[in-house]
């Protein structure tokens, strides 16, 4: 259970680890089940495209060219589903209530499209200007001054996916909501989200280095949700500080 009071940075990071210990199995089970459903759809789509081709030779090409974009969509879906699962888990985690794999997944799936749209829009806002300059032929080194702007925008929108999942907002409204909540606490948001991203990247690289492809697949299942746990608790903290969310949680408790 997370304290119903304004949270310090250590409370948020420690609360994320505590939530991971308590709900990690349920969270990974729901994420794995959702990935399995998406994987079956990806395979079915690639197979249907192959069957629709006119010859075995062209069929194999169609299968490959269909599978790669579908795999990219699968990765995007995984990240969005992980965030939606965290958003659905926030209230039970704060109140210390049990959750089940089917219940968590059923709560998260309807929110996943909005979360995915929010994540893509946040990425476009943060990295778009830099990517456009590079695409226009500007040398990457010449575009480096835009990186601090991208970092600022990225942190400003860091709570948008959680807001989309928790409040049911659309992508644009979720970005506005994140900017509203992060305003006045930008450095604190960076201090909370950056260690989680670094830890996740290091853990994924270690799994890949030590176990090869099985490690990479394990990282895909186990790690996407972790960076969203501190972001979700930071979202709760900002609403406790600014909107008295603790009173609502206390009434539920």
UniProtKB/TrEMBL annotation:
Annotated keywords: Membrane, Transmembrane, Transmembrane helix
Transmembrane segments: 30-51, 63-90, 120-143, 149-169, 189-211, 217-236
Keyword Transmembrane helix tagged: yes
Record protein name field: Integral membrane protein
